[in-house]
Amino acid sequence: MTDAPALAALLAGHGPLLLDFDGPVCSIFAGYPAPKVAEALRQVLRSERLDLGEIEDEPDPLEVLRWTDRQGHSRLTRAVEDALCAAELVAARSAEPTPYGREVIVAARQAGRPVAVVSNNSEAAVTAYLKAHRLAGHFALVVGRAYADPDRMKPSPEPLLRASDALRVDPTSCLLIGDTVTDVAAGVSAGVPVLGYANKPRKVPELRRAGAASVVTTMRDVAAGLLAVVESNN
Amino acid sequence: MAENLDYLGDVDPTAPKPGSRDIANRLRAAILTQKLAPGAQVPSQPALADHFGVARETARRAVDILKAERLVITRQGSGAYVRAKTQRPVELRPHIEAAFERMHVAIDFAGFSGETLRDAITEALDKVRAGDLTPESITIRVMISDMTVPMALPARAETQSDDPAVRERANRITRRAADSIIDQVQELSDLGLVRSAQAEVRVHSAAPLFKMYILNGEEAWFGFYPVIERTVAIKGEPTAIYDLLGKDVPLFHYTVSDDSASHGTQFVEGAAQWFDSVWDTITREYEA
Fold first, then answer.
1. Which residues in chain B have their CB less than 8 angstroms from residue A102's CB?
2. What is the DSSP string of chain B?
3. pLDDT tens profile B136-193
4. Which of B158, B231, B237 comes nearest A107 by C-beta?
5. A191 and which of A27, A69, A171, B103 could share a cystine (Cβ 3.0–4.6 Å)?
6. A–B: how many Cβ contacts below 8 A?
7. pTM, two decimal places
8. How close does chain A come to B121, measured CA to CA in Å?
9. Facing residue for B238 by CB, picked from A97, A107, A134
């Protein structure tokens, strides 16, 4: 499944490793399912007597936020954003670590690469998770969702460029690991190579088509590849 | 040209003449406070003798004391110099080798694996084999964590919990060092080069958090093991573990002095008491 030489070449780089959060690091909504969060956001909208037509069954809270923003009332966008931030903080407490996600983070540090999160989730929720799992010290940076401005989320290149700027490196020297087509699209437009993490088999062709430089189906391959780099450095 | 030795302190002409140990103390203080910088030349014996109003022989003995402490080194024909890099972790290894210069050698180690001890005694034992060192007795006691029972460290990082697979890796490392120490000392004993040579290893269930060496009951070396997280391959599986960082940590050095109230004397005595108390109670035999 994995394109081994392409993966090895990606992991041999020295630039920062940028990790999408929900997917490569953990399943943030493992204990507080995303559809329930989406419903909580709809409750906010319902109290404003909005017609929720097309998002009545939307399971993805981020899509509810995007839709709200398109309605053009910034007060509403802020209300949904606040509710989402609060829900994500709750969800972070019952988030499920991604198998081998921790190994990848730690091995990247051993390989001399700075590690950062670039996420469409709120920075507060990401940081809370990292602290609770004693991982915060490994991270040089956390870039979360721009407040009440969903157009600046991935697939916008902005969060990735913000990260490479803050880390004072060229975007092309970074490597993004992401599990969605949205991540790949953001990487392609920012000039950041993307390693696709297909945590569901159907994602393999999707991520490839979107332009991922390589695709893995388990983070184990990434951890083992980084360990091989550490070995060869010694 | 008279050297300016004011940094060595005033000399009271009416007081009794200082001994070599007094002069060594003044020099040591000057070195540790960097009034004599790493790499600097130590005042010559005539200059010291002149400054303190003592015989040159007394000055020479003072410098010898610092040489024995590895604070100064001598270069043939050009005098004594402050050892460079005294600010770096003091090196234990030459001290272990020096400990073998005694008639009766006694070394106690408490810690994770004794890898450093093994490496140091390999060299010292080579000198014994070659006849360059001729101790009458060697007694080595090694007290390490028993990696066959549950431990708080090393541990699996994600869960912070004990993991037999993680310990198995640590167990291999500890056994390798312990077995080698036992083998080397046994070989000496078999060769009959030393009247009595024994190495005893005992294990306990406490996690390794620090290491300590006691050399001939006269000096103690103490170092903390910081906990680090790293991903290692355990049976081919990448695994993030909390591990101890044993190598390249600074060691604190304490020596017994004539002053029974000194910090060094009290530390070494306390260390020896602690070692014996643990050795005699919660340890059990190590099965080589």
1. 157-158, 231, 240
2. -----GGG----TTSPPP-HHHHHHHHHHHHHTTSS-TTPBPPPHHHHHHHHT--HHHHHHHHHHHHHTTSEEEETTTEEEEPTTTTSPPPSHHHHHHHTTSSEEEEEEEES--HHHHHHHHHHHHHHHTTS---SEEEEEEEEE-TTS--SSSEETTTTB--HHHHHHHHHHHHHHHHHHHHHHHHHHHHTSSSEEEEEEEEESS---EEEEEETTTEEEEEE--EEEEEEEETTEEEEEEEE--TT---EEEE--S-TTSHHHHHHHHHHHHHHHHHTTT-EE---
3. 999 999 999 999 999 999 999 999 999 999 999 999 999 999 999 999 999 989 988 8
4. B231
5. A171
6. 38
7. 0.79
8. 26
9. A107
